[in-house]
Write a structure and sequence with these properties.
The model has no long low-confidence stretch (mean pLDDT 93). A hairpin with a 2-residue loop joins strand 2 (15-16) and strand 3. With 130 residues, the protein is mainly β. 5% of the residues lie in helices and 48% in strands. It is globular. The chain starts with 6 loop residues before the first strand and ends with a strand. Strands 1, 6, 7 and 10 form a four-stranded antiparallel sheet that branches. The chain has a four-stranded antiparallel sheet with strand order 9-8-11-12, with no helix packed on it.
């Protein structure tokens, strides 16, 4: 068993929580266990900043996650509040990066009592400021 691979959420006109992905990130690449690219600074009044405040957000998807017969949780370690959360049917998410050097992105799958964890390094991200 392996953890489902993280993929960058496509930009363009795609939206998560009514915010364009292209307004949050660009050129996100996942190679092995490393995530690189640019996280734009998101502020203003929108569904994401109303909950998490202004900052840099990473948009990922997990299309190969088997959420029917296993439990898949994703999130940041250390977390800025929510911890790992279970994937819902849309299999994507928006994650606030507060410290790219100390945080790792984590994908955890549990099936039949076995748990596998994949951690991604975020230190190669460029986080824009205001």
């Amino acid at each position: 068993m392996t953890a489902p691979a993280a993929q960058a959420e496509a930009g363009g006109s795609n939206k998560l929580f009514n915010v364009k992905v292209s307004d949050m990130q660009s050129d996100i690449t996942i190679s092995g266990s490393t995530i690189t690219g640019t996280l734009k600074y998101l502020d203003g009044d929108n569904a994401i900043t109303q909950v998490w405040g202004a900052g840099n957000f990473l948009c990922l998807k997990f299309p190969d996650a088997d959420i029917e017969t296993s439990t898949v949780k994703v999130g940041l370690e250390p977390s800025a509040g929510s911890g790992l959360v279970e994937l819902d049917p849309d299999k994507n998410g928006v994650f606030k990066i507060t410290d790219k050097l100390s945080q790792k992105f984590v994908v955890q799958i549990t099936k039949d009592g076995e748990t596998v964890v994949q951690r991604y390094d975020l230190s190669g991200l460029t986080c824009e400021t205001e």
